[in-house]
Amino acid sequence: MYRVMLRLTKGEQVKYLSHLDMLRAFEYALRRAKLPVAFSQGFNPRQRLILGSAIGVGVTSGDERIIVELSIPMDSEAVKDALNAQLPPGIEIMESESIPDGVKSPISAISASVFRFTLEGDTEQAEVAVEALFAAKEIPISRIKHGERNSQKVIDLRPILLELRSLAPSGRPGHSDGDESRSLAPCGRLTDVEIVMAHNESGGVRPQDFAEAVRNMSPDIIVSSIRRIRQIDEKALGVRR
Amino acid sequence: MPRVTKPAQYTGGEFNAVLKDPACVNIRFALAFPDIYEIGMSNLGLRILYHILNRRSDTYAERVFAPWVDMEAEMREHSLPLFSLETKTPVRDFDILGFSLGYELSYTNVLDMLDLSGIPILASERNDDHPLIIAGGCCTFNPEPLSDFIDAFVIGEGEEVVGEFIDAYLENRAKGRSNLLRALASVPGVYVPSLYRVAYNEDGTVQSVMPKEGVPARVTKRIIADLEEAEYPDRLVMPFVDTVHDRIPLEVMRGCSRGCRFCQAGMIYRPVRQRSADKLMKQAEELSAATGYDEMSLISLSTADYVGIQDLVRRLMDRYESERIGISLPSIRADADCVGLANEIQKVRKSGLTLAPEAGTQRLRDVIDKNVTEEDLFAAVEAAFNCGWRRIKLYFMIGLPTETDEDVAGIARLASAVAGIGRRMGIKPTIGVSVSSFVPKPHTPFQWRAQDSLEEIERRQEILKREIRSRDISLSWHDSRTSRLEAVLSRGDRRLGKAILLAWRSGCKLDAWHEHFDYAKWASAIEEVGLDPGFYANRARDYSETLPWDHIDCGVSKEFLKSENESADREETTVDCRLDKCHGCGAAQLAGGAGCIA
Prior knowledge:
By secondary structure, chain A is of the alpha+beta class. In chain A, about 25% of the residues lie in helices and about 35% in strands. Chain A folds into two domains: about 1-105, Pseudouridine synthase I, catalytic domain, N-terminal subdomain (Alpha-Beta Plaits), CATH 3.30.70.580; about 110-240, Alpha-Beta Plaits. Chain A has helices at about 20-30, 75-85, 105-110, 125-135, 205-215, 235-240; strands spanning about 1-10, 50, 60-70, 90-100, 110-120, 140-145, 150-155, 160-170, 190-200, 220-235. Chain B contains 19 helices and 19 strands. The mean pLDDT of chain B is about 95. The chains are: A alpha+beta, B alpha/beta.
C-alpha cells in the first residue's frame, strides 16, 4: 500500500460543512480524479482513507489531514494536482507527502491544534476574559447531550487548554497563513486569540467549547470566527513546553 | 447561520454549480423548487432545465429552494430576502422566477417564497418592476388553483419550450407586462391564466372557460418527440449535504403504457418514448466522469418495461463493475422476471424489496387495470426470498372506486399469504404493508370519481388494523387528511386560490412535512372563503360537467378516459398497448403519430 498524506484547507465558502460533508466532497473528488485509490474488502468496499481530527460546522481551517491509500505508487505532487482540479471551491490541498513503508501514520502522532478565535467587542474586556480563563484552575462547560432527553453534562475545559500563544487586537501584521477571510475583517473592536487545544483520544477537539467559555466569562464578547491554524504532534508540543 | 440546521444547504458553492458573470447576460432566471434543498436537488426536471438554460450565453439560471422553518425565522427577523444559491442575489432582482410544481402540498411554499422574496403574491398586484413568475411540472396539468399567483404556466416537457419562452420574453419584455403576457400566450404550451375568464354555474361547477381574443382556447402540452436528441445534463451539481436522490439519474424512458386507471403520471407523460442503450451508455460515461457518483439509477415510470432492459443492465454492469459504480432500479413490477433482474443488479446489498400490488383482490386490481395477478405476486415474492431478500414492502391503496370491505380485507389476506410463503421457505420474513388513500386526479380515467369521506377512509383503515394480526407484518398508512387535501387541490378550480392564500396567511406551509401539516387550518380557510372541501374531494362528476382543467390538453383524449372509466365499472382490463394493439388514447398524435413505440 502506498500512502500519501494531504494537508487541506477548509475555507469560508465551505465553513458550514460538517465533517461528514467534507469527507463526502473529498471522496467524490477522488473518484473524479480517477486516482488508483485502494478499496477496503467486504460486501461494501470503500475507498481506503485515514481521517485526521474532525472539525465542526462553522469552523474554517488551514490544516486538515487525510491519508489516501493507493494501490500503485504515485508522485505525491501529482496526487495533489489531480485532486485540486476536482475539489469544490474552498477546499484545497496545500501540501502532499508520501509516507514511506513501515513509517507510522503521522496522523496518529497528532495530539493538539492551534486555533485562532476572532473576538468581537471591547478589546480590553476580551483580553481580560481570555487571560482569566488561562489563570483559572477549572473551567466548567455544560454540554447538552442530544437524544437522551437533552441531558446536560458538565466538563472541565481547563486541562484541554494547553497554551495561550498570542492575544492582541486584530489587524496587526504577522498573519500571513493564507487565511483569505483575514484581510476582510474590519479593525478596531476585534481581538485575535491563538491558543493550543488538546485532542481527545479519538482525535476530537471542540473549539466551540472555548468560545462558550469566553462568552460565560464576558457575555458582551462575540466570537466572530474560529479557525484551525495548524495541527501539531507530541514532539512539537514537547519542544515548546 | 450557525444557529440553523444544515446551514450548508443555503451556501451554494457546490462542485459543478454554474458560475457566470451576471453582468454579461440578458436574462437572470431563478429556478425555484417549492420545498427544501434536499428534496429540490433530487428533482430531475430542475437539473435538466438548469443545464439547458445555462447553455445559453444570454441566460444565467440559478437555484432557489424553500428555507426550513428555523432559517425562515432568522431571515424574517433580520429582513434577509430569499436569495439564489449561486450568486446570493435577492430573488426579486431576477427577470424570471420559475417554480417546478410536483406536488399540490407544496403550493403554500410557493406563496411563502414569493413573500420571502418581497414579491407581491398576487399576479394582479405585480408590475414591470417585478420578476415574471412562471411554473411548470406535473401539477400544472390543472393549473387553476394557482392561477391567482402565477403569471404563466408552461405545460408539459420543458426541454424545447423553455428556449422558445426565453426568446419570446427577450423580444417582448420592453413592451410592458400585459403585452409580454399576450406574446407569451402564443408560444405553444404556454398558459396565461389571466387571459381566460371562468364562469360558474349556480351549483358551483364550471360553466365555461373563455379565452380573450387572440388567445388559444386550449393549451396543448409540449413533448419531446425524439428523446434520443433531447438535451440532457452532462454534469450535475454535487450537493454537499445529504439529498433524497443522491446518485446519477439515467432517464431510460418517458411515459408508461401500463394504463393503471388511477395513475396521473401514466396518462400525462404519454406517449412512451425510449432512449437507446448506446445513448444511455454515453450519458453514463459523461455523468460518471463529471460527478464521481458510485451509483446510477435507471429512471422511468416503469423501468422494467424498457425494451432491452436485460441487455442495458448487462452493458452497464460490464462497464462499471470494475469502477465500483452500482446500478439501481427505482421500482420493480411484481413478477418473477423483475425480481431476477433486481437480484442480478443488487448482488450483495439485499436491503428491501418493494412491490406494488395496489389492491387486495383480483376484482379490484382489474377495476384499476393493475395487471398483476396473485400468481405473479407470489412468484415474485418466492423469487425474492430465494435470492436472499427478507424484507418486502407492499404498496396498496384504499378507497379505490368500487372498493368493498372484502377488497380491504383482501390486503390483509394477501400480506399474510406473502408472509406465509416466507415462513414455509424457512425464512423469518418482515412484511411492510404501506397503505395510501386513493386520490382522484385530473386527466385520468378516474377524474370523475369521488374520494371517500374522511370517516369512510378511517373506517377502512380500522378494518385493516383489525385484520392484520401477524407479527411478521407491519402496517403503515398515509394521513387521510393529507390525501383529502390533495384531492381538493388537484381537482380544484380558480376559486381555491383565495383558500390557498388564506391558509398560507393562517400559517400553513411545508404541508408535505407531516410535522407541519395542519388540516384544521386548511379546512377553516377553505370554508371561510365560502367553499366546501367535500365539493372538490367527495363529489362524483358527471361526464357533461366542464372540468376546471378541460382547456388543458394532455394528449390523451377524454373519450379514451371515459371508455377506460366504463371498463372499470365492468371490471374489464385493458391490455398494455405495447403487448396488444394501440387503444387510441390519442397521445401518439403529439409526436406526429410516430412517437409511440408500441
